[in-house]
Structures
1.
Amino acid sequence: MKAAYISHPSSLRHEMGAGHPECPDRVAAIADRLLMRGVLDFMESFEAPQATEEQILRAHEARYFAELCAKAPAGDYVHLDPDTAMNEHTWTAALHAAGAAVLATELVGKGGFQRAFCNVRPPGHHAERGQAMGFCFFNNVAVGIRHALEALGFERVALVDFDVHHGNGSEDILAGDDRVLMVSTFQSRLYPFSGAVPRGANMLNVGLPAYSTGDAMRSAVIDHWLPAIRRFAPQMIFVSAGFDAHRDDDMSHLGWADADYAWVTDRIVEVADEVAQGRVVSMLEGGYDLPSLARCVELHLRSLVGIG
Ligand SMILES: [Zn+2]
């Protein structure tokens, strides 16, 4: 199995202020863990290129792209919402994070790789067509999905989002695009307070109650996700891989354990092998408790890469 690991040093330079949970240490903790545990020995490493304007405009409004570029500060932070700020490196890091998705899609779509994981930030699934929010600037996974559809000739792809927050940005961009099936789980009535009513027939949203454990997610996957994915028969599966439903992560009130991340990845791999020739592109989204984040990304990759 050929598997790609994609990162970029700019992920370590974008930061949004002291004490902000979406911090450079996240990608560093993951990289350190993967190196220490030997996982990277089984993956080919790549540096993420910058996405081009054309690639980003497949998912975002031209007005938004231009305004964000103009806001990139030379010095002090520029706040786009109370939680989302740009420093002098944010614009570059955001271009590379979206470019990581494009490269991953290329490698899996035509480069002989079956799996790719992008350890990059800023994350993307809250970024809407014309709006940065929730620590996100460009919707990396949507840029990758549109690249698969519009540059590589894929006709059907699926997006699986297991971050604890609803992927409102991915829904905003992809709702109504019948080339895409999006399935997700998220904690109900948590930021960004969307998802209860899907915005398109191609959206399968499963809200999970606060204080539920991984068992509720497993039921959602078995009862809802897998039948829908099998019916849709995507040619590639994208993953918005957020690790903030973990019981140690205080960003939410769900109680998933390490084993739940291995389990859900195993199910994604099984259905990808069944319908999508094993093609999986996974993008880092949330996950703010560094020890559990690093452990669960390791488990996610052991399953994706097939090294047990
Ligand atoms: Zn999240």
2.
Amino acid sequence: MIWEAIIDFVFPKVCVGCGIGGSFLCKECKNRLDFVDQICPMCGEGSLMGWTHSRCKDRYGMDGLIAIYEYQEPIARAVVDGIKYGFNRELISIALKDFRFETGECFDFLIPVPLYFYRENWRGFNQARELGEVVGSKLLVPVENILERKRNTKQQVMMKTREERENNISGAFVVGNEWKGKLRKKKLLLVDDVFTSGADMRECSKMLKKAGAEVVWGLALAH
Ligand SMILES: [Zn+2]
Ligand SMILES: [Zn+2]
């Protein structure tokens, strides 16, 4: 492919972890990456398999979260940032390789958490959507852009308390018109690159469950 050859020339394959040439993540850095311990998406405390604690269950809340890496870990952060700014699918596949998870659910749709349009980069790359495509083809679950972002929000890092973050995000997502009335009893998997405070995913879950969804899980590359 001539186009790929040009891309390789302009953006040579170098490891995001150590800078060595040849691949986007060298074997050594990949081996140093550990899969992260799972947490409950509602309270952020540890939870076996990422299931929401029974004490944290909430009518519109998430039912569980699958996270792959620890965002604080330097190589994991380089991978997540490499995907966000480096617009390559190959790195996504490498990052997801060997990761297995079991939620006990059979999902109907996989939904990328939408970005506000100007946060997408110059190629219109949305890392949540790209990640969704790769995960969707692995799980054989169709990827659908069921949610739309209605307005932008302040950067969540500026928000100090959980309450501030939830207020900031409240009303930011809506179920697209063509999906209204079609989500009853559906089992959905939200996908995003990073689960930090989790306010975005919890708000998405709320909108989907209000629209009739029965189960909402999240999958994030890192937390
Ligand atoms: Zn490396
Ligand atoms: Zn909990």
